Amino acid sequence: MQNKESFIVNRLKSVGYAFKGMLILIKTESSIKIQVFIAIIVTVAGFVFGISKTEWMIQIGMIGLVMSIEGINTAIEYLADFVHPQHHEKIGLIKDIAAGAVFIASIIAVIVGGFIYLPKFL
Ligand SMILES: Nc1ncnc2c1ncn2[C@@H]1O[C@H](COP(=O)(O)OP(=O)(O)OP(=O)(O)O)[C@@H](O)[C@H]1O
Hints:
Blueprint: H1 2-28, H2 30-48, H3 53-83, H4 89-121
Bound molecules: adenosine-5'-triphosphate.
Residues 31, 77, 87-88, 91-92, 95-96, 99 line the site of adenosine-5'-triphosphate (ATP).
């Protein structure tokens, strides 16, 4: 019983740490602030254009995809600066690849956004 309780307490603590990490990300990273702003704009657009339930699910999925990869990219940047604060070609490569992942997700999100909203104007 004690084991089960400590399991639940540990899970709750982990959720708390993850929540703290999310707040740090939103408070300190300018790129994620821009993404939050875009997420608000497309959410408002979703209501204005009355997008379908499926379109909402896809839109929310895209927002989650971009923001979560941005979070991982930020963590990689912090880790890279921590393990090697000096300028190094490999650190630059690691950071560029991590940023490339965000770029891929963002391009996909823009294309998906086009599929959702362009027909509303045509
Ligand atoms: N220590 C380093 N050694 C080599 N190149 C680096 C180093 N730090 C950064 N760079 C290069 O500069 C670019 C920008 O790095 P930086 O850490 O400022 O990321 P950023 O994309 O500006 O991040 P942010 O999301 O915080 O705006 C990297 O993608 C990399 O090409």
